[in-house]
Fold this sequence. Notes:
With about 160 residues, the protein is of the alpha+beta class. It has a single domain, classed as Aspartate Aminotransferase, domain 1 (Alpha-Beta Complex). Helix content is about 35%, strand content about 20%. It contains five helices and five strands, in the order H-H-E-E-E-E-H-E-H-H. A five-stranded antiparallel beta sheet has the order 1-2-3-4-5. Strand 1 and strand 2 form a beta hairpin. The longest helix has 17 residues, at about 15-35. The protein starts with 7 loop residues before the first helix and ends in a 7-residue tail after the last helix. The model has no long low-confidence stretch (mean pLDDT about 90).
Amino acid sequence: MPSKASTVAAYLAEQTPERAASLQAVREVILANIDAGIEEGMQYGMIGYYIPHGVFPGGYHCDPKQPLPYAALAAQKNYLALYVCAAGCAAPEWIAWFESAWKSAGYKLDMGKSCVRFKSVAQVPLEVVAEAIRRLPSDKYVRDYLAGRGNNRPG
C-alpha cells in the first residue's frame, strides 16, 4: 500500500530501523550520483527521483501532471525495491550492462521489468547502483524516453 507521507523524512520514519537504514544507504548513493536535472521527492507513495516539469514540461505520459519518473525507492510488504524506471525505456545495452554488472559483483539479481527487489542493503552492490545512475544522465534519459514513445519532441 502506498505511503501517505508527504516528505522523504516522514517516509523513512514510517519504516522499521533496519528497513529505513537500507533505504537510506541506497538513497545516499542515488543522491550522490544523479545530475542536476533530477530531483528527489515523494511520488506515487514512495521516494521518487524524477525529471521536473521545468526541465521536461510534458511530464509523465500516463499522468502529465506528474513529473517524469526516473527511479524510486520503496518499502513493500515483503521486500524493499529500487525501481529503475530507466530500464523501461533505456537502450538494451544499458539494461544488459546493468544485469551483468549486478551479477558480476557477486549479487543475486531479483528483478522484474524495472524493479529490483531486496531485503537489505547487504543484497545491493552499491557501486553498481552508482554507476547505473551515472550512465543515464537526465538528458539521455529524456531522449531514450521520447524515442521509446516514438516521439522525439520534448514536452
